Amino acid sequence: MDATPDRIPTPASPPPDVVRCVAMELVVTDLAASRHFYVDVLGLVVTEEDETCVYLRTYEEFVHHNLVLRQGPVAAAAAFSFRVRSPQDVDRAVAFYEELGCRVARRADGFTRGVRDAVRVQDPLGFPYEFFHEVEHVERLAWRYDLHPPGVLARLDHFNQVTPDVPRAVRHLEDLGFRVTEDIQDAAGTTYAAWMRRKPTVHDTAMTGGDGPRLHHVAFATYEKHNVLAICDRLGALRMSDRIERGPGRHGVSNAFYLYLRDPDGHRVEIYTQDYWTGDPDNPVVTWDVHDNQRRDWWGNPVVPSWYTEASLVLDLDGVPQPVVARTDSSEMAVTIGADGFSYTRPGDAPEALPSWKQGEYKLGHQL
Amino acid sequence: MDATPDRIPTPASPPPDVVRCVAMELVVTDLAASRHFYVDVLGLVVTEEDETCVYLRTYEEFVHHNLVLRQGPVAAAAAFSFRVRSPQDVDRAVAFYEELGCRVARRADGFTRGVRDAVRVQDPLGFPYEFFHEVEHVERLAWRYDLHPPGVLARLDHFNQVTPDVPRAVRHLEDLGFRVTEDIQDAAGTTYAAWMRRKPTVHDTAMTGGDGPRLHHVAFATYEKHNVLAICDRLGALRMSDRIERGPGRHGVSNAFYLYLRDPDGHRVEIYTQDYWTGDPDNPVVTWDVHDNQRRDWWGNPVVPSWYTEASLVLDLDGVPQPVVARTDSSEMAVTIGADGFSYTRPGDAPEALPSWKQGEYKLGHQL
Amino acid sequence: MDATPDRIPTPASPPPDVVRCVAMELVVTDLAASRHFYVDVLGLVVTEEDETCVYLRTYEEFVHHNLVLRQGPVAAAAAFSFRVRSPQDVDRAVAFYEELGCRVARRADGFTRGVRDAVRVQDPLGFPYEFFHEVEHVERLAWRYDLHPPGVLARLDHFNQVTPDVPRAVRHLEDLGFRVTEDIQDAAGTTYAAWMRRKPTVHDTAMTGGDGPRLHHVAFATYEKHNVLAICDRLGALRMSDRIERGPGRHGVSNAFYLYLRDPDGHRVEIYTQDYWTGDPDNPVVTWDVHDNQRRDWWGNPVVPSWYTEASLVLDLDGVPQPVVARTDSSEMAVTIGADGFSYTRPGDAPEALPSWKQGEYKLGHQL
Amino acid sequence: MDATPDRIPTPASPPPDVVRCVAMELVVTDLAASRHFYVDVLGLVVTEEDETCVYLRTYEEFVHHNLVLRQGPVAAAAAFSFRVRSPQDVDRAVAFYEELGCRVARRADGFTRGVRDAVRVQDPLGFPYEFFHEVEHVERLAWRYDLHPPGVLARLDHFNQVTPDVPRAVRHLEDLGFRVTEDIQDAAGTTYAAWMRRKPTVHDTAMTGGDGPRLHHVAFATYEKHNVLAICDRLGALRMSDRIERGPGRHGVSNAFYLYLRDPDGHRVEIYTQDYWTGDPDNPVVTWDVHDNQRRDWWGNPVVPSWYTEASLVLDLDGVPQPVVARTDSSEMAVTIGADGFSYTRPGDAPEALPSWKQGEYKLGHQL
After folding, report:
1. Within its chain, how far is the Cα of C140 from the centroid?
2. What single DSSP character describes residue B38?
């Protein structure tokens, strides 16, 4: 596969030392509606705001923000932000991406409040990545239980990116210093998705195969499973349960407990808790068979089609949505729940082994 | 409706004083497989067993058993057992049902181990009801945390019966001393289901509209939501996740947290926790609109079709399956997820208000 | 013991049919401070209020209130209120207590808002009991998860009364229709405490041996253990952790998870979850040895002395505090943690068997 | 303080790159009793065992073991093991400690099963530290929910060491590449304890001021608070509740939920869950006032004296217990719960502000 003409070269410049994913900037088309969703419903904390931007953080965060909502004409993801270890790592980011021929913009006073000396790039996969070290510190609200809602969001956990060619994306992220912790493949060697990390959790970002570049979701971590369920219960009470797209459930991949929501612009948000330590250099990579119906939900509950097909546009450095390139490899939805797809509960099971109550679910795909 | 010719008469004999639903007897076609499911997977406690029967109980129970698995040729429910307050209430049960012209069988030494002086009847709705007071006491394992599995089942909570004419069934159960706590109706006055109680929880049994008489499910209560999730996780680890039919989720009706499983014969088992006190004489009845998509799942997750259509046969006093009579009223599935059905998240919403990720789900019905 | 001259006679009048403990009226000396504690800190719901009274309820309650805070000169309990099954049961309460020669006051318009036709009595043990049936219904907030705090209080669960002679009190409560579910005794036959119920939980009230009549505590039920812990965390965040008197922990008696708080006047409030079904007529009574150090805390954590010695005064029908009569039987504190007391973890253990880390704790008593 | 004559020099050799604390070797005097405690009661997984050693691991671990129980004549800690990033880091450890003049022993085939090329040193503080990279991989049981007990232990989280001079120890650990995340001080500048990390949690080890070198405890992480409580409940059911020394509770320092147990030899084990991310280079250090009674328990529950005074001996490389040197700085117990100590709930509170129910507790110290 290294011979594919479009393999992204490995720069001679060392990559920046990425500490963790730290923030996402989302363009939203109705700032008041989005603020209501993230603040009044999900309970994120407003660090500061003005007429066009709301800066939000989680309850364990001491950095200025984890999420920026910015009013704009087209819903999209404007920046996937990573914190780097030192000021010099911002220089390294510049050199790394310039060597790759990417557009690079650096601002000494940052692109958002609370951040200084940041660089934004249009990466070779088409995503707007941002790197910075200098940040404004704010109160860490971890001990402020008087403020915690029942579904308290503690940390930004990860991003998830849709990209047509997952192995190509993985190799590039490895050049940037990320490591694969888990992936989904089939017997023919097609890779459907890969989870990649800098911090020692399952991921800082994942590469999901599909038409891209697009943002699949941004994920916030909470403490316990009941916190996730509290968000569902709250949405029900607010008659907003149709914000729930998928879950709650237990992932196979990552072993985490999850819930997927859709915000007022359709941006997907995951609530996530309890994956595992991956920080050892020889951390075992877990590879899942795409036909294992416990890979994406350990309980075998099917993935809804929209989860496979819908995602958010991403912007270039001019704020223009990036064109979306179609995936040419097999799609995970087609091979699992489509007319010709199948999934098994036990390796070796025939498709007919699914009980009556599961057959309807796993044949959803061909009816779309 | 009182004028319907088939209204079940109200006996002049007073009904027995039913304390609670206490046990279910299931005929299973492979006793070893069923024992594995209920004991090794779900963790119910074996009180005693022989070659044809296994007597199981929950961890808070002090009565001999809550579930009898009996080997037989056809999977079916053989007895819905209720405990009555005094020995005299068994006499009352005999008189009550004899006045109704039902078949009645009484055995001084009981129909099962651990029980004496029991009466079994073929009730006017076609269900095999059993009433007894005298029971053998066994150790209540509530404090035996050394034995509790992560998904500990604490109590038998309720039965759920499928019957074609819900209002007719409700009136009869009211004659037996039960009271409605919640129901599902539509604007035209059709009743789709009703929950009825003796003990002060939401129900000892529910009447679900459909082809009957059949057993919809038997439910066991656990303590906390994480206990329910532990059962899902365990089924995943055992590669038995296809035993999960629906859930986990939060019910609208009852406000309880739930999970539906199917046993090796397809008998449906619910795991249930945290409904509410209903013991006041003027407890407010909650009526749900059949089109409210939060009525059966507070989070708006759709009910799988099998949950509406599949159920277990019930036996008559000779052990012969009762013939199933078709429901003639509208079916809940048809009016909510069928071709002409619809559900809303907010009262007043048009069917088109469902977001893309929900439309696929709620259009399942017509594709069956 | 039936020969004791002060045995309370059993009236010929039938007792009222008590459904459940339903409300407590507390006199508080600083209404604003108490309102802050119960509403802003514990999250109880204000049904209505005026300058001298605040009417509060839990999230599952449909009756007007579970707790009345009334401004007054001396902190005390003014009424232990029970709901009775029918209007006629109020008549029965009047006859029952009048036959006992008790002071009885009945008001057609109730003693508090939200209640009509109530009777208050000064019972033979010196407690101000209230009985009513007619109540104003209010919204049951069980489904209003948008309002639930992390430590949501769902129901009033029980009262706990301090009285010098527990067996005498038990016999009287049995006359009133209550049944013992658990008690604490010693080998010599002294009874230290007894738990008594009408509703099918471990208790509607308990009799704790000590100088009385006094109110030991009023208890509210929540759903899960993490809800109890959330209250602790919140008190810590508010720098009000010194409101925590004892716990959290698991009771031996009742098997419930508990926490004891003290309100601004020192009234004791328990947060409680998950006891067990006691509604069968032959529910097994559990008797604990007073020397079993797991009886009051299943984990063997010692009871703080104040929990044994401090309690709230109760008022007579004129609003005057009842004189407190000393207990003459052995005190539970003295026989367990006092200079001559001892407790064991395993029956048969010598006092010396306590490990070093427990010895300091269980010798607290003699140092007071 | 840098002028103190006994400051440990900073080696010119770079320290090894420590990934995380990974294992503890405990000498136990009754291997069967210890195996019962850790395996049958706490549920750790046996990787392998022979007549003198049991190798145990947690459910998320893929390295051979996290705990070694070795039969021996005197209960003690034999090795605090850290995993290093590369084989070369073992060389670095050798050079680092040899430059410090410490005893150093390296074994190509490891000191225990499952490990190769390990070095053990007698560090300048007197502790037996071990460093290795090469390990045998075993099955990660994170997804094996069929094996998880209710109180599942997921990871080794940290060690805690008792040492007389905390600042001296901190400086040395900083030389080894650790960073302080939290500490406890007083206004006069005395440091009572410090938490230090390599992995991005609150600690891999902590330095607790006291007579040392001794092992204060080893801590295992679980997922949720109810898992911790399940261990308490289980100990109660087994009539082993006297193994509980302190807790459960919420720490102020670390914000984690905790429980302290004592094993059959008195070795202290903590069960721990949910501290926070500390991996940013500028992670804010949290300093607690020693008089803040929420620092060690956020709910203000007092620390039992044994927790301050008792700890395990540590062995030198010959297997001989290290002599214990007395702390000369003030002891945390003396200044907080002793005759002259005091603790406050709110900064500025006078000692008299403690309510009656807390006074007994916080005056424990002088009565020892």
Report:
1. 23
2. I
CATH 3.10.180.10 fits A18-314, yes or no: yes
Closest CA of chain D from C358, distance in Å: 7
CATH topology of domain C18-138+152-314: 2,3-Dihydroxybiphenyl 1,2-Dioxygenase; domain 1 (3.10.180)
The partner residue sitting opposite C237, judged by closest CB among A144, A226, A234, is A144
Share of chain C above pLDDT 90, in %: 90
Task: Read off the pLDDT of residues A302-343 as tens digits, 9 standing for 90 and up.
Answer: 999 999 999 999 999 999 999 999 999 999 999 997 667 888
B-D contacts at Cβ under 8 angstroms = 40
Q: What is the ipTM of this complex?
A: 0.96
Residues of D in contact with A252 (CB under 8 A): 143
Whole-angstrom Cα distance, residue D365 to residue D262?
21
pLDDT at C50: 97
Taking CB atoms and an 8 Å cutoff, what residues of chain A touch D279?
19-20, 199
Could you tell me if A29 and A37 are in contact, meaning their C-beta atoms sit under 8 angstroms apart?
no
Å from C296 to nearest chain B CA? 13
| Among B358, B241, B191, D87, CA closest to A249 | B241
The number of beta carbons lying within 10 Å of the beta carbon of residue C8 is 16
Question: Mean per-residue pLDDT for B191-213?
Answer: 98
* Spans of all domains in chain B: 18-141+151-313
B33 to chain A, minimum CA–CA distance in Å? 16
> Which chain A residue's Cα is nearest to C143?
A237
Biggest CA-to-CA distance, chain A: 61
In terms of DSSP bridges, do strands B155-163 and B214-221 run parallel, antiparallel, or are they unpaired?
A: antiparallel
Nearest to D125 by CA among D205, D18, D12, D70: D205
SS3 of chain A:
CCCCCCCCCCCCCCCCCEEEEEEEEEEECCHHHHHHHHHHHCCCEEEEECCCEEEEECCCCCECCCEEEEECCCCEEEEEEEEECCHHHHHHHHHHHHHCCCCEEEECCCCCCCEEEEEEEECCCCCEEEEEEEECECCCCCCCCCCCCCCCCCEEEEEEEEECCHHHHHHHHHHCCCEEEEEEECCCCCEEEEEEECCCCCCCEEEEECCECEEEEEEEECCCHHHHHHHHHHHHHCCCHHHEEEEEEECCCCCCEEEEEECCCCCEEEEEECCCCCCCCCCCCEEEECCECCCCCCCCCCCCHHHHHCCEEEECCCCCECCCECCCCCCHHHHHHCCCCCCECCCCCCHHHCCHHHHHHHCCHHHC
CA distances from B31 to B74, B77, C133 (A): 12, 14, 51
Residues of chain A with Cβ-Cβ distance to C150 below 8 Å are: 145, 148-150, 152
Mutation to test the C interface, candidates B152, B280, B288, most C Cβ within 10 Å: B280
Q: Which of B265-279, C351-365, D85-99 has the lowest mean pLDDT?
A: C351-365
Chain A CB contacts of B353 under 8 Å are 242
D261–chain B nearest CA distance, Å: 17
Residue C308's contacts (CB-CB under 8 Å, 6 or more residues apart) are C210, C331, C332, C333
pLDDT in tens, B219-269: 999 999 999 999 999 999 999 999 999 999 999 999 999 999 999 999 999
Distance between CA atoms of residues C89 and D130, nearest Å: 76
Q: How confident is the model at residue B360 (pLDDT cuts 50, 70, 90)?
A: low
CATH architecture of the domain formed by B18-141+151-313: Roll (3.10)
Give the three-class secondary structure for C82: strand
Other C-beta atoms closer than 10 Å to the C-beta of A39 total 16
Q: With an 8 Å Cβ cutoff, are A150 and C147 in contact?
A: no
Residue A280 to residue D83, Cβ atoms within 8 A: yes
